Amino acid sequence: MNYSWIKNQPDDLLIVRDDLYPFLGGGNKGRKMLSVLKEVESRNCNAIVTTGGIQSNHCRVVALACAQHGWKCHLILHGNKEAFYNQKGNALIMRMCGAAIQFVEPQDIGLAMDLAMENLSQDGYSPYYLYGGGHNKAGVEAYVEAVKEFSAELGLNKQPDHIFLASGTGSTQAGILLGLEAIGWNQTKVHGISVARNQERGIGAVLEATHFINPEFDASKILFYDDYLFGGYGLHPAELNDFTMTVARDSGIILDTTYTGKAYYGMLDLIKRKKLSGNVLFWHTGGLLNVMC
Ligand SMILES: *Cc1c(COP(=O)(O)O)cnc(C)c1O
Hints:
The chain folds into 2 domains: 3-27 and 136-291, Rossmann fold, CATH 3.40.50; 29-134, 3-Layer(aba) Sandwich (Rossmann fold). 44% of the residues lie in helices and 17% in strands. The protein contains 10 helices and 10 strands. The strands form 2 sheets. A 6-stranded mixed beta sheet has the order 1-2-10-7-8-9, sandwiched between helices. A 4-stranded parallel beta sheet has the order 5-4-3-6, sandwiched between helices. Strand 7 (162-167), helix 7 (171-183) and strand 8 form a beta-alpha-beta unit. The site of pyridoxal-5'-phosphate has 18 residues, from helix 1, strand 7 and helix 7.
């Protein structure tokens, strides 16, 4: 596992570098996909149907994985179609990998997914239905394993007091929570900074994801903040842009403005406001391609 120490940020800060995860272009979607792929292979599927926005990190890893395996890839995208065909970053990689692209309105995604599954089956494929974001049991398990790997490498006496991360569908946060439970690091608090959802919905999503593995998981352990949305998913006012520039200049850590920039900003603010102390870990979930579109 890759990690870096950053000096003076507020104290020394440990960063898990999943932005550099060495698989399918990195990020938490790369890590989840490695685990999802085992399931796709065990079911002998040869096509994947999934969904996301035009700069979806998840859709990028699926397009790359399908190209590597010679599988059919069907991506159901929502957002600006013209931008998708003009932008670089994840959109370019999806196009380069030859994924079949279908644009729908957000409310029609479920129906389009079902239809794509049906059509692929009729064409003789064995398709795998993958929720957006890699939000399923295998995706959560990837992060249970990541925490085990991390704790083994760092040493059991280096238990962080606080872990911060960007939280979207909630499966990464759920996996980290379950991983901590599995290794007995029960004092570690996991702070999910929302990139899209309000607190109630976010906690519900994280809880649901923990239940993929442990149906008894206690909701009171889920810390989820919607104070750092900066207007909503994908929105990034000047203050946030400036913040990511400052962090890059001061520490050489690249944050994107959709996910990790909001989480890092939220982390610094929560540490200050709640006077949190002890070992702090930022779990960098990726987003490098989101700054290159
Ligand atoms: C998808 C994503 C997240 C959120 O992960 P979830 O498991 O959906 O909560 C955070 N950071 C980046 C860079 C992402 O692409």
